[in-house]
Amino acid sequence: MELKTNFTEKASRDYILVVKAQKGNQQAFAELLDYYKDSIYYMVLKIIRNETDAEDLTIEAFTKAFKNIEYYTPTYAFSTWLFKIASNNAIDFLRKKKTAQKTVSIDKKIKFNDSEFNIISLISDSPDPEEKLINVQSQKILHHIIERLPTDYRSIVKLRFLDEMSYVEISNKLEIPLGTVKARIHRSRELLAGILKK
User: Fold this and answer.
1) What is the mean pLDDT of residues 19-25?
2) Going by C-beta distance under 8 Å and a sequence separation of 6 or more, which residues neighbour residue 181?
3) Cβ-count burial of 62 within 10 angstroms (0-12 exposed, 13-18 middle, 19+ buried)?
4) By CB count within 10 A, which of 92, 126, 177, 191 is most buried?
5) Domain check: are 148 and 111 in the same one?
6) Nearest 10 degrees: CA dihedral of 45, 51, 56, 62?
């Protein structure tokens, strides 16, 4: 790939790291993560307005970006590409959440041209084939990384990120205080970031 001459100094630095990352250099991945994790988190937080979900989506955005880094081309700065992935991911999350919250009454009637009709509207929450493939690939990556965590954190992370259980559900399932669940998930994020850096 040829570096665009109109790149800023920061974009040029990122491009050099991306090329290294595309060749499997883990240190380059770690540096890109360090440069952008806070910016991505706060951008996602503005969209989601929930700190826990924003943290989860930030990790997910980096996972998707690093998994697909071979497809990055320097048409735009790496940061533009990364922020696009993160914002699309956050918007998809909101869309799915909104769809999941919709309830439909099978008894609901609507009027049309002075006639009443029963409307049954079923909304499928099943992912499409592309979403299924992305989910399978993301889960494989997460499984590989999670297996490197200490045992105390591994089970909580699996329940939170793979089984998508709430903090309260995890607390009930493992019979540990809610504060412990929150503390372990927070600590596991730090450990996961450390694993990614290595």
Assistant:
1) 88
2) 156, 167, 170, 171, 174
3) buried
4) 191
5) no
6) 40
